[in-house]
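Q: Please design a sequence for this.
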């Protein structure tokens, strides 16, 4: 009976945390699909400044503005986007809104998830989360930014050079474009978490650092498989573009894990001898 009460208590707490997350994310999502950001220019002490204010617009909303920015930044100028399906433009706006909601709401999500998990963690696990929390967030942000700003535009440029070499019309469906751009860029944020993942498992004593060094060949194959699965095309170019930094990050994480283990082993030996 006590176990059942404990399970019900955990489920109730989980429900409460999920509702608290929803209370923040739902209004944010609604704002993104119903308002646009309009610029307003003003002068302060002779300096021209620009600010933005929200204005209701169901069609040309924040997601539509972000979409146009993505097109201008990522696609070569000669590529033409086509609305192939009747509802493609609506689906695209929903996908962009979902991603932006996840990005802007991530601090609150992390806060609520942490508040739910911390009571069940041991002291060393809590200390580890505090130590790797900021680096993990920074690495995810850097990886996603690199994906959006550099790697995805470079990928589109390379792929459409093959299109030009074949003498084909450079056209692309809007749904294919946004799915590729969002998934590919977001994947880089996930990939950049790999060193933190390896380091954390070694710090917790789950996996020895020597394991990462001994199984580097499997890691290379796994990186290629991940690149093949995460990229929505079958060219092989995108697979290599995402697998290459993933392999480099694996070796970086293995090095940090090995460095920590070497530093901590003498301390552990002295503790055992004492």
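A: Design:
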């Amino acid at each position: 009976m006590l176990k059942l009460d404990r399970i019900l208590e955990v489920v109730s707490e989980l429900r409460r945390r999920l509702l608290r997350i929803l209370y923040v994310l739902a209004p944010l999502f609604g704002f993104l699909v119903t308002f646009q950001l309009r610029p307003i220019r003003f002068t302060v002490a002779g300096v021209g400044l620009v600010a933005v204010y929200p204005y209701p617009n169901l069609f040309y909303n924040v997601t539509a503005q972000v979409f146009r920015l993505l097109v201008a930044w990522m696609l070569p100028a000669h590529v033409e986007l086509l609305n192939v399906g009747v509802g493609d433009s609506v689906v695209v706006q929903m996908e962009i809104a979902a991603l932006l909601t996840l990005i802007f709401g991530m601090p609150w999500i992390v806060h609520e998830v942490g508040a739910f998990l911390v009571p069940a963690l041991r002291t060393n696990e809590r200390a580890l989360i505090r130590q790797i929390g900021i680096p993990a967030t920074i690495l995810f942000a850097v990886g996603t930014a690199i994906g959006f700003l550099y790697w995805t535009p470079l990928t589109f440029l390379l792929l459409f050079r093959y299109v030009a070499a074949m003498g084909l019309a450079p056209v692309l469906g809007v749904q294919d474009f946004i799915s590729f751009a969002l998934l590919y860029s977001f994947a880089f944020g996930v990939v950049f978490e790999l060193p933190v993942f390896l380091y954390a498992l070694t710090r917790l004593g789950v996996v020895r650092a020597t394991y990462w060094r001994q199984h580097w060949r499997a890691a290379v194959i796994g990186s290629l498989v991940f690149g093949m699965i995460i990229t929505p095309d079958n060219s092989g170019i995108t697979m290599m573009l995402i697998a290459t930094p993933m392999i480099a990050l694996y070796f970086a994480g293995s090095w940090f894990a090995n460095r920590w283990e070497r530093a901590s082993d003498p301390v552990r030996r002295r503790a055992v001898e004492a």
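Q: Thanks. Anything notable?
A: The mean pLDDT is 84. The longest strand covers residues 35-44.
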